[in-house]
Amino acid sequence: MTGTPGTVSILDSLIGYLCYLTYLSAIATTHKRLFELITDRRLSLADPLPSCSGSAAATRQPHPPVPAAGVQRPTSGAAADIDDRDSGNAPGSCNAVASSVHPDDIGNYVCAKQLPLEERRRLLKDPWTPPPSYRFPVVPDAGGKNRKFQRDHIAEFPWLTYSAVPGLEGGFCRYCVLMGRQISGRASGDQALRSFVTEPFKRFKDAKRHLRQHQTTEYHADAVTMVEEVLMGRMGIDELVDGQRREERRKREQQEADYKKRLLPVIQTVLLCGAQELALRGHRDDGPLDLDAVPKRGEGNFKALLRYRAQGDRLLEDSIRTAPKNMQLTSWNVQNQIILVCGQMIKENIVEKIKKASMYTIIADETTDRNKRGQLALVLRYVAEDGTVREDMVALLNPEKTTGEALSKMIIDALQKLDLSLDGVRGQGYDGGGNMSGRISGAQSRIRTLQPLAVYTHCASHRLNLALGRALTVPGVRNMLGVVSVASNFFNDSAARVQLLEEKVEQLGEEQKKKRLKALCRTRWVEQHESLLTFEQLLVPIVAALEHVEREGSSDAAQKASGHLAAITRFDFLICLEMAVLLFGITLGLSICLQNPQQSLSDAMQKINEVQQAVQDAREEFPAVMKKAAALADKLDIPVIAPRGSSRQVHRPNSSVSSDPETNYRINVFNPFIDQMIKELKERFPEDHPGLQLEGVLPARIGTADLSAVVECAEAYHKDLPSPVNLRSELVLWRAMVASATNRPQTVGDAFRMAGSLPNVKTLLQILMTLPVTSCSAERSFSTLKRVETEQRTTMGESRLESLILMSAHGVASLDPSMVADRFMKTRPRRSV
Predict the structure, then answer these.
(1) What does the DSSP 8-state code read for residue 779?
(2) Which of 436, 445, 458, 364 is nearest to 686 (CA)?
(3) Phi, psi (deg, nearest 5) at residue 399
(4) What are the tens digits of pLDDT across the range 617-643?
(5) Which of 182, 354, 771, 781 is least crowded, fewest Cβ atoms below 10 Å from its Cβ?
(6) How far apart (Å, rounded) are the C-alpha atoms in residues 631 and 634?
(7) DSSP assignment string, 457-523
(8) Bridge partners of 77?
(9) Cα separation of 128 and 151, whole Å?
(10) Torsion 751-752-754-755 (CA) sign
(11) pLDDT tens per residue across span 397-429
């Protein structure tokens, strides 16, 4: 064929292009045929192998099936799919062409679960190894340097096997692949199976170091043990699996036991700090605990106690020294978790007792803490199984608003969190604040709307304080208390004057145990009576000390001493002081009795009536009061005279029926003081309280009570009674039991224990015992709050503060450190191993 050079060149190009198309068509046909072969083999799998999430095998299909024992194995197999994550095997690259893979290549068995035991033995004994002519692929490391697998590593590490499966080129641990996947995707402990097991080893830089690290792993050691058992024929696959499970369970239990031993000293130290109200952390308390280092200045009590305890506790010492720095269990987070667990366990113990009692009353009071936050203490009163009355604090709430609606909602929400229903509420006890006691929008009214049986009781101690406070409006007594308060503060505000008073007590030969004055408290009448009694006993040394300050003190001190001396050296002051000591002494026992949680509402009302009668009878004691005041006046050279009168006086009693001092003070001071006190006690403690309607069942009244009236009153509590139809019969029997009893029950608690065989009567007595008397238990928690939340701990969180107060208020004797450790390990599972 002839033609111009240009024509020949075009024809040659067309022929070459046609040949290239033919070549591409042949390659495509070959690839298609190869894909069909691979697909056909995969579709004929008898036991499909699951993929491994999180590994290279997750992106490829199952490998060719493994022939059963005795079946002739093929000499070659189709290639696996390409792993898109390997840059060398990306689709479209020249390495994407499938290559021959040996059937015994370990890569074919990655993630294989259903593999016969004999097949495992054969692969363990005779693994496939790349022939000497095999060229290991080059893999760039992180620094860009090309590295590849070294054949010598197979001889040095007998468990090491290389896989030539595309996408899985690299080193594998034959033992872990074949024996380490029998239970789950995770080996013993929490060690994930990745490199050498489900993913090829390709970190060829410092390869020997990584290989040795794999040998030290726990799951590799377990696999080696199982390989030995399988190769020696000691157990089958089922026994192997059960043995592995038992071994993993044993190791986990051992790990938990070891962890618990390390945790117990930490928990015991936290319990000690909580019970003793000690701050756990110090100003410099960060970082791990180093037993060899010199303790830091400002180290907390928690670490200091652990350091001290480690000197005699070898286990604790070894635990602190050998534990990783982030696992010493001394961090603030661990401390908080233990404290919260303790608080929760204390709540659960209390709630369990309340549920057994089936009924309870709500007691609450509010105060302001050092951080200027409102704190509402929630206390529940109930009768325990042994018949004792308990008042236990269960929560410390932080109210944002103090309205009746907000407080009632907060209380109800707190009860729901404790899994306590309002159906069991039988009473409420608060102070007289309008937001709590209001009849329309107060918290008690809103709760009673939801539970009509939740009878409200105004705190009896608060009512007694109000009654005594109003009784002090008698001018002479009011002025006397003011003088005592100012004079006591005058001495207590100066160390020199306190020492001077002590010297005067010794010089005058006064045989007194107390040598110092006590400040007069306006609300705590127990302390007020003690203050008045101390002032009366030290009156002569007080006058001597004031005279000394008046003569030799500074001008300011002398001026004040002169004023105090003029107020004290008056007979009207002495007579009012003796009257207050007498009458406050009568109410002292009642004030102490009301603060006892065992006191029932019925017993409290009985004692209040007795006090009213005692105050009435005190009118006959005025001659003795006058005699004591005259004796004091004689010691101090104070004339016993009647107060000055006037023709017209409207601000104080001014009777001029007699110039005799005794008659004058009886009519103008003593009798008005008693009359005012009796009036206030009757008004503050009415006898028509709704909770007292069941008093007919009390031993003191069952003999004369109208049983029909008792049954009628008990109708409101018919759901509480075990068998309401038998109530009248039990009341008749109860009347006979009380009448024939040798030792008649004196309190409701004694009657409750006596009526054990009468379930309905016992329930009515339990209701009377459950009704609140005072809110003193809530106020006591404020004293605990003041001790726990010091000025250095004002930033403490609410949950931690509540738990610490619960630990202090209820003690930690009921908390078993072992149970606390179990709860701590359950709440934080990752810490249990």
Answers:
(1) H
(2) 458
(3) -75, 135
(4) 999 999 999 999 999 999 889 998 887
(5) 182
(6) 5
(7) EE-HHHHHHHHHHHHTTSHHHHHHHHHHHHHHHHHHT-HHHHHHHHHHHHHTT---S--S--PPPSS
(8) 101
(9) 13
(10) positive
(11) 999 898 999 999 999 999 999 999 999 999 999
